[in-house]
Amino acid sequence: MKKRRSVLLISLLIAPVPANGQEQPTSLETTVMLDEVVVTATKTVEKRKDVPNAVIIKNAQDLEDAPAQGIGELLANEPGLDWRTYGNYGGATQAIHIRGMGGDATQVFLNGINLNSPTFASADIGRLPTNSIEKIEVIKGSGSLLYGTGAMGGTVQLLTKNPQHEQMTARATAGYGTEESYELAAEHGMFVTETLGYYLTATSRETDGFRDNSDLEHKDLSCKLLFDAPELMQISLFSAYIDREYGLPGVKPPEGTAPHLINSTLMYNDQSASLVNRGEDEDWHNVLELTAQPWLFLNLTMRADYSDTESYNLNRYNSSGTGVETWVTNTTTGIEGFLDWHPLSQLTVLAGGQYRDYDSENKQGNIDAYGAAVAGSRTLLESSVYTRGAYSEIQYRPLHYIKLLAGLRHEQHSTAGSESIPRFGLVINPYETTAIKLSHGKHFRAPSINDLFWPDDGFTKGNTALIAETGWHSDVTIEQSLWQERIMATLSAFRTDIDDKITWAEDPADPNTINWGGYWKPSNVNQFTSRGVELGLTVTPVEPLHISLAYTYVNAEEEKVDGAWRQATNTADNTFKVEAGYLLPFGLYVDMVVRYVDERPSAYATDADLSPEHVLPSYWTADIKLSQNLGEHWLLTFTATNLFDTEYDTNSSDFYGATYEATQNAGYPGAGRSLFASLSYEF
């Protein structure tokens, strides 16, 4: 893009993106890093230095420059963040984990729409396109006060692009790479009148994947309509549609595994534990938001959202060829209203209420050994829960350099009962370039629909007697800008505790109906704690060069049996990331990222064991992206991920071969080296 290169690259890394989508001037004098605008932490426009939480901000230019294939890779190994997948194949589920906690402890929002699945409780960010995203805000620490259930480790807010006044945006991109991967993308936005504008995006991409049955077909569309009358109100209507079909290859079987056929169908080989399992997703998200400022001291916001997500899963067993196909439809409706009141210059009062209704339909049917549906075998289970909450937060600044926060939320869940959630914060700004932040609050996660209502199949079932997970989170953060804003350093220390953690396990006291021992079901039996330190550093020593480093140490432990604390599965003690970008004199921009993930325990033989039975080895990867402007409108990019073709596993599970009882632990492999080139035209 002709706008993409500024005199100082630091402005691309840290410049705030205002709510109206206008670009900021890209000069050092107008860029103050601690003045970055944040809206997720307090639901109002705040400067970063006034937010009591540790914050990560990424913008559209970061997505453009980084050698990342999606939002997960962009955020991977940022301070306190862990990006986890079940293998890096096309349709693999991707989740963001914050400070050692599970994916169900991170709430992900798209323009205020909660993307966490009502059935699984976590959000799959691998579904989301990147060309519609203008800004990403990650707020670490308990967000349950403002966002309710599930925001235990933190929140991720994805804000999409807005049309710009007196400027038309139009862009088309085509790309092709290894594994027969291609992508076509387009976006267009403008104001058609002084107050009414729109922004459209569309993407289509396909890949064969790096191993058998790891293909993906993905299509998405999004549209934002914006009525912007600053002296009256702003109304936005956003809709997004996503459609995906993909293979589910499972783990990579142990070396030397022979291909296995059932009724002439190849079930698995030495590359993939399944050659027949498939998945499909169809998501539709909508949100209507109205903001107004009837008086200078009062801001009002109303938001209503509706999501309909449909998922299909085909799962056949390697031992018999039989299996199950499952259709899950989740419908989520939400409404929220809040006000931001400033009765005094040093006092702010935030108050609001929220209601969310979740309806789920789970339909299952049996598959015979030839892969055909068994007539008359389909069952249907319909479930519904709701949550309603009221919250209030007071912010008071007794002195120019001190800010105090205190808030309370009361949440009622239709099945799991009610919770009162307090939060406290303190921000000290002794200098304009220094922020000292302390945050302490309670958090909670209500059980998911699957936890509560999973249908009884004779072996597995839900548990309607579950209560919510609860706990406390505390952290202290120091953010410092130095050397005329050429250096930004952050240091945080944190601790999180969870009581009554929900875990699925066999219950010997509840014999199942097919005589395979006890039912596999969830219970509130575990405890969890996570504590650690995170460090972030961004440096621009000279104008064409920027360097950023991120390091996280986290000690995440779980208690499965009273008094037996052990390292949580799939959680690394140490993660590290370094990124360097350099603009060459002839306009070639080079960005390289190196990531390191420490070894992780992947499985314990029994709940009482303190030493893991299986460990995932440590690994590192290197990615690079080259971007070259060609004339005024063209941009050519080349990306290489896993540049040195490192072999690593992202997760592990048991491999079930021809004999169901004979299992071996195997890994979900990360993708090897991949190459991708694209050409964009913008005017």
Description:
This protein is mainly beta. The chain has one domain (10-682): TonB-dependent receptor, beta-barrel domain (Maltoporin, Chain A, Beta Barrel). The strands form seven sheets. The chain has a 22-stranded antiparallel β-barrel. The longest helix is centred in the N-terminal third of the chain and has 6 residues, at 60-65.
Mean pLDDT: 92
Q: What is the β-strand count? A: 38
CATH overall fold name:
Maltoporin, Chain A
Helical stretch count?
A: 5
What's the end-to-end separation, in Å?
9 Å
What is the CATH homology-level superfamily?
TonB-dependent receptor, beta-barrel domain
Number of domains: 1
Describe the sheet with the most strands. 22 strands, antiparallel, barrel
SS strand fraction? over 45%
* CATH class designation: Mainly Beta
Category from helices, strands and their pairing: mainly beta
Helix percentage = under 10%
Brief rundown of the structure:
This protein has 683 residues and is mainly beta.
Properties at a glance:
683 residues; 22-stranded antiparallel barrel; Maltoporin, Chain A; 5 helices; disordered N terminus; single chain; 58% strand; mainly beta; 38 strands
Strand-helix topology:
Layout: H1 10-14, E1 37-38, E2 46-47, E3 55-59, H2 60-65, H3 71-75, E4 81-85, E5 94-98, E6 106-110, E7 113-114, E8 133-140, H4 144-147, E9 154-160, E10 169-177, E11 181-191, E12 196-207, E13 216-229, E14 233-247, E15 260-262, E16 265-268, E17 278-295, E18 298-316, E19 323-344, E20 347-367, E21 379-399, E22 402-413, E23 417-428, E24 434-445, H5 449-453, E25 469-482, E26 487-511, E27 518-539, E28 545-561, E29 564-567, E30 574-583, E31 588-597, E32 600-603, E33 614-616, E34 619-630, E35 634-641, E36 649-656, E37 663-669, E38 674-682
Parallel strand pairs: 6-9
Antiparallel strand pairs: 1-2, 3-8, 4-5, 6-7, 8-9, 10-11, 10-38, 11-12, 12-13, 13-14, 14-17, 15-16, 17-18, 18-19, 19-20, 20-21, 21-22, 22-23, 23-24, 24-25, 25-26, 26-27, 27-28, 28-29, 28-30, 30-31, 31-34, 32-33, 34-35, 35-38, 36-37
